[in-house]
Amino acid sequence: MLNSAILDALRAAVDVEGATLPSGLITATNQLQTYECDGLTNMRALPGAVVLPRSTEQVQAVVRICDQFRIPFVARGAGTGLSGGALPAEGGVVISFARMNRILEIDIPNQRLIVEPGVINTHVTDAVAAYGYFYAPDPSSQTVCTIGGNVAENAGGAHCLKYGFTTTHVLSLEVVLPNGELATFGSSAPDAPGYDLTGVFVGSEGTLGVATKITLRIVKRPETVQVLLAAFDSTSAAAQAVSDVIAAGMLPAALEMMDRLSAKASEAAVHPNYPVCEALLLVELDGPEAEVNAQMAEATALCQKNGAWEVRLAQTAQERGLIWKGRKAAFAAMGRISPNYIVQDGVIPRTALPVVLEAISRMATEVQLRVANVFHAGDGNLHPMVLYDQAIPGQEEIALDLSYRILHLCVDHGGSITGEHGVGKEKQQAMGYMFSEPDLDTMQLVRHAFDPHNIANPDKLFPRTRLCGEKSGPYIPHPLETAGVAEFF
Amino acid sequence: MTAALSSFDDLRASLGASLNVASMVERDGKIVVSPQSTEEVAAITSYANERELAIEIVGAGTKRGWGNPVQANILLETARLTGMRGHSWQDLTATVAVGTPWAAMQRTLAAHGQWVALDPLWPETATVGGIIATNDSGALRLRYGSLRDLIIGMTLVLADGTVAKSGGKVVKNVAGYDLHKLMTGAFGTLGVITEVTFRLHPIPAQTRSWSLSSEAAEPLGELMLKVLDSQLSIQAIQLRASSAGYALDVELATLPEVLTLQVAALDRLAESVVATSLVSQDQPFGAREELFAPAGGLIVKATMLPSAVASVSSEVVRLGGSAVTQATGIMYARFPDGVAAKALVALRASVTAAGDGSVTVLRGLDASASPWSAEGVSALSREIKRRFDPNGILNPGRFVGGI
């Protein structure tokens, strides 16, 4: 797809003649292979070239070439996405933001900062921590994933129940449109006149262009943080405790639940000293100390009222850290109890939790598989993990089928096919289950206005005709994950 | 308008089967129609789209003067698209039809101690749809965000009659584009919103407001930034400015037993900056609405960074006006007719100098001028409008840049 003239043009776009900097163009096959997948490791495609621009102008130059020759392109941050959002088009261009990783401006009085897309999520917090601030969205890959990727996927995390998602925290964007033109969406000041293009761009999974500069909102650190761990005899009892906490008017920073299987796996992996129980609930409250003290007393009472037989309030930062470590290790820990597993990401109204869990358990029993459940219980975001053994012929297909039927179950209960991992390549078909043709056609109006030639991360997000024998795949730990650099949840 | 008049019987005949024709009248040469369902809205827009008849969409009309005037053949009223479609109070979500007055919705939600945490103008009359189309918000935005953070799903009708849903009924959802964000604040130029799903918040156990007065804006501006930088349970802050002086209003929302502690902390903060004490204040956040109460005058919405609020407030007073500015950096300023033209030019210059804000006229504009600052609208925005509404029938010309 990329002939030598195009490659020369790309090289000229990212390399300054006579400069001694390393080249910004990668074309060697062995090097390109690094970019052939993201966190969804079972889907792979070899790009034709990878460019590593150092400036907005270089990004523009690259995208203009893609526009001129109708070459599909995809932006890439750290490649930690779980739905194949950064999967290249075969023979297309990958724009890596590894070299655009500067924090450009910090404005504490106005609680915002401006970053390039390659900045790592936790580095934003690191930059403002001394002033008592933090960047709220905290996907569990946050020590490696980039803000640019967070913007593309509208990344969430355990604390979005209280603090909102990436979209809540993006004030303004500089974007290279698919025709190479530069646009500014939104402004640091609120309510920029015009359509809310920032709102529609965040979470558009790379299909509307490439962000090159991002203005973020930061949040004052709460005075205190407390974490409660409660053990229940059933997931429905724990779910009722969650509903009661919410109904009492509290807005916890996080409300997480793990079932017996996932707690057991975490215990084996990182030894957080969890009680052995059917459902483990983690309640994190933050805010002014007096407020948190009062609310924690009430939350504890509500857990006990619903049958919690052990409630443990973390007394130190270390104890809090250990509780969270177990929770965050849940995905990777599945390897301890099953040779293979598929991670799903569905959302249901919180009140549907008991009935949906019951149905998942029944569906799993019917096909003789186990499903471990970890969820952001506060906002109804489930991460069922379908456990299976690839060595048993036919079991992978059964597991995959079960994982998709679980998504359909979420939609049937008024929920969504994805709460934070995105649609990407993985859930294209499920979009057709959640949305009707007119809904999808209306989204396509936006897509075509931004990208009439369909070159910005094409063939993602929207359903397409399923090819014969095509299948989605099991969860294979990302190299970063097996190396212990990052965890997903 | 003859085209519209001749279409009236045509429309009545065409829609008679699907529409309650009693809700269709002629007024001032326009067809005025009040559909009762999303399907009826779709029948009307598709009819108008085929014949290229312009539609103006109206709720209670409280903000009808915002934006450019619309020349329409059909007036589509949302007055009969009313009522709650569902309140899943245990899930903290509610779905409501857009013609519902804001306060009526809030009264229903309050039965379970919940609300949509937003304080728009004229809540008793203003409709949910009109508030969304104009993206109105008040001082509560500091704590709870604006409509874009509170809306999780929508049903909308496109110009060609397509009925589409965006988002859903769960708070956490990243499937597909957030069309509901694109619709919020679009002044009805991309589609007719018929139903909307909100995420709800619990109504705080106790809220109390306090004020501080000063003859100068700067110390209050400094205090405002300090309060923003504090860890107090602040719900809303605004700075009032007039020739009589300046006042900073702060609203705390927390548990009753915590409030006393926080008031003491706030008082210490105030003493350290302005050397005066807090005064308890009842309902100061109606000040924004009071600016609009007297007829006439020039009223603008200006946006700026929080750090610029004090200096721009001073400038408004110097220009002969008064203002109410939320700590998020959204100002509503009023100028007497006599000084209006000059003040507008000076205020725009002042806001431009302060950073990347904007000034939009809401009332009292010279008919030939644009409510928005000189800057036009991007080719991309025009293309979005063209894709959604190729015949330009929905609130044509209403929005920035005449889209």
Question: Would you kindly provide a brief summary of this structure?
Answer:
Chain A is α+β, with helices and mostly antiparallel strands and 489 residues long. Helices cover 35% and strands 19% of the residues of chain A. In chain B, the strands form four sheets. In chain B, strands 15-12-14-13-17-18-16-19 form an eight-stranded antiparallel sheet.
In the CATH hierarchy, the third-tier topology of the largest domain in chain A is known as Uridine Diphospho-n-acetylenolpyruvylglucosamine Reductase, domain 3
SS-based structural class of chain B?
Answer: alpha+beta
Biggest beta sheet attributes of chain A: 8 strands, antiparallel
**CATH level 1 name of the largest domain in chain A:** Alpha Beta
Helix content of chain A: 25-40%
Count of individual helical segments of chain B? 13
Proportion of residues in extended strands of chain A: 15-25%
In percent, how much strand structure appears in the residues of chain B? 25-35%
- The percentage helix of chain B is 25-40%
* Largest two-chain interface: A-B, 86 and 85 residues
Labels describing this entry:
heterodimer; A: 489 residues; alpha+beta; Uridine Diphospho-n-acetylenolpyruvylglucosamine Reductase, domain 2; Uridine Diphospho-n-acetylenolpyruvylglucosamine Reductase, domain 3; Alpha-Beta Plaits; 4 domains; eight-stranded antiparallel β-sheet; five-stranded antiparallel β-sheet; 18 helices; globular; disordered C terminus; B: 403 residues; Vanillyl-alcohol Oxidase, Chain A, domain 3; 3 domains; 19 strands
